[in-house]
Amino acid sequence: FKQKTAYEIKECDWSSDVCSSDLSLAFSAYAANSGNAKEIKALYKKAVNSYFKGNLTQSKDYFNQILSLDPKQKKAKRYLNTKIPTKQKSLAKKKVKKQAAQNKNIHKKKVGVLYKEALSHYSKGNLVESEATFQEIIVLVPTEKRAKHYVEKKIPAKRKALAKKRTSKAKVAKDESVIPFDDSEKRLLDETTKSY
Fold first, then answer.
1. pTM metric for this prediction
2. Which ranges of the chain does DSSP label H, i.e. alpha helix?
């Protein structure tokens, strides 16, 4: 293949890939004997252009037309049997990679939203909801270390702290239910107990 000109690149004109020597070799045997040589040459240029533009279905159609005009065309057979299937596989792999990248971005966004939600529940003290949301993140991304850290360490620690806080509040409330006597109440109590 020869080097492309700026015009060929801009216009996606790949016809120069079919060098005049290639064309003369491919079609010289048929030029004298066949009235289809010009048509085959034109179809070949269209087929190769379509191939390089990535329009493989159209390229196949052109190559099949060439073979219907002349079944001995080796280059057309090579494109149909080898080059086009190889390019189809390559394009399919690119499509799968692109889809995987898009899915990964969607996945990242979803995990980000769930993470914010889990932190919000955690900061409000809704530990059950927080833990459930972190567990959902871990299901989506089993290697997510921050979510595991919250589930395994931070949430249990906060539960213990809240339990201690509740226990101390209950103790204070119990202590506050027994109101200490002032001096006048003490005297009154003493007098009442003496009389009995």
1. 0.43
2. 6-10, 20-31, 37-53, 56-69, 74-78, 84-124, 127-140, 145-149, 155-177, 183-195
